[in-house]
Amino acid sequence: MILVLKENTQQNQIDNLITWLKSMGVETHLSVGKYQTILGLVGDTSVVDEDLLQGLEFVESVKRIQEPFKNANRKFHPDDTIVEVGGSRIGGGYFQVIAGPCSVESEEQICTIAEEVKKAGATMLRGGAFKPRTSPYAFQGMRAEGLKLLLKAKEKTGLPIVTEIMDASHLPLFEDVDVIQVGARNMQNFELLKELGHIRKPILLKRGLANTIQELLMSAEYIMAGGNEQVILCERGIRTFETYTRNTLDLSAIPVIKELSHLPVIVDPSHATGIARMVRPMSLAAAAAGADGLIIEVHNDPPHAKCDGPQSITPDAFASLTKELNQILPVVGKKEIAL
Ligand code: PEP
Ligand code: MN
Predict the structure, then answer these.
(1) Is 236's C-beta closer than 6 angstroms to any atom of ligand 1?
(2) How many whole angstroms separate alpha carbon 275 and alpha carbon 290?
C-alpha cells in the first residue's frame, strides 16, 4: 500500500502514523521528495483499513497494491484449490454439474429429478429447503422436512446434496448436508460466514446481487479465516439496468476470479437469466470461459414448479446440455462429464 502525504505534513504526524502501523505488524518505508512525501507500507496490509488512512487530514491519497484478501489470494497459493465432494472433484481441471429443482416439493419430486439428473451426468443434487423469497407470502420451502427428503434422495441415488442455509441457528439440521450453499442475499451476512468458517464442509458461496468481485472474495475470506478452506465461488448474475433477463450474467467474473484466486468458480445460468431457454447458451459460454462447473435448476414439470419454474429446464433438456458441454470441456483443458 502506498500513501501520498500532503506537502505540509508535520514530522510528528508521520512518526505517530509509523508507530501505529508498526503496532499492527506493518513496516513502512518513507521517501521524502522535494514536493511530495511517500510512505510505502510493507508486509501484510490486509489488517489495514484503507478508508481510515484516506480519512487522515494529512493523507493526500492511498493506493492499495496488494489485495485485502489473503487466504483466497492466488499470490499466496498459486495452485488451484480442488474441492472434493462425495468422491467427485471440482477445480483444477475437474468440472462438475450440480442440478436439481429450485426447491424440494415432495419426496417423489426430489427423488425422480435426482435419478434423472444423475443419469444425465450431474454429480451433485441441488434443492432448496429453506428458501429466501422476496415476498413473505410466497412458498418459503419445506424447511427441515425438505432436508429430510433431500437425504432420502441422496440415499436412493448416492448423489451428494447441496442446499442453502439462511441462518446459523439451523446448522445442526445441516449435519448430513454435503455442501452448504450461501445464497446471494446472504453473501455479506458476516456472522453466518464466520460460523461457516468453523465447520469443515464445503461451502458454495454465491455472489450477491449487487456485489463486486472483490466483495465476493472478501466474503470467501471470512469463511477461510476461520479455517474452512473448502469454498466454491458462484457467479449467479448481478443486477444491472437490463431488464430482459432476471439478472446480467457476468461471465468475465470467471477469468477475473481465476486470476485473483485459487478457489473453484462455478456459474448459475438459471438465476442469472431467469429464462429456461437461455440456460443452454449461457452454460456453454460459462464452460468455454473456464468455469469449474455449473449449478442448474431442473424440474420435471416446470410450469407447475413451486418456485422458479420459468427458469427451470426439463431433465431431457439437461441431458442434451451435458452432452454438448462435453464437446467444449476438452477444448478448455477440463475433464469431460462422465455420461
Ligand atoms: C437458489 O439457488 O435457489 C437461489 C435462491 O439462488 P440465489 O441466492 O443465487 O438467488
Ligand atoms: Mn431458484
Answers:
(1) yes
(2) 22
